[in-house]
Amino acid sequence: MTPIMKRILIVEDDPDMRLLLQIVLSRAGFEVWEAEDAEHALTMLHQNKAPDLIILDLLLPHVNGLALCESIRQHKPTAYTPILIVSAQGDASTLRSSMEAGATDYIRKPILPTMVLAKVQQLLALEDEVKPALNAED
């Protein structure tokens, strides 16, 4: 039986960073969805099955990443989806605000592709452990 490919949504306005993440993740065997802003990301989340993980930049046009993170948490299908913030902002206040908005983890840019991949795999492994308990609550 073929394993189910995990879906990852990348929300990043920088096309070069989006491409780098897409290459790293698709080569690792993930199905990658891409959105360049919050509006596009929300449209994808409402029209498709929830991704298994979301990678989110904080500095997005129109709606910032913190507001998007809060919106993702309010949408029932993605309420418990792991959210990995990848941002150039790395001060303690931004990190705290990200966690309060619902982020699961945080990586500061510039990124090392191996670090992103390791975090993604770690978060997905945790999700696999927690998901059965969450589904039992529904």
Question: How are the SSEs ordered, and which strands pair?
Answer:
Layout: E1 7-11, H1 15-27, E2 31-35, H2 38-47, E3 53-56, H3 65-74, E4 83-87, H4 92-101, E5 105-108, H5 113-137
Parallel strand pairs: 1-2, 1-3, 3-4, 4-5
Question: Which features characterize this protein?
Answer:
alpha/beta, Rossmann fold, 138 residues
- Termini separation: 28 Å
Report the strand count.
5
Spatial arrangement of strands, main beta sheet: 2-1-3-4-5
Number of domains: 1
The CATH homologous superfamily? Response regulator
Strand content: 15-25%
State the secondary-structure class.
alpha/beta
- Helix and strand element order: EHEHEHEHEH
The CATH C-level name is Alpha Beta
Low-confidence stretches: none
The average pLDDT is: 92
Q: Please give the share of residues in helix.
A: 40-55%
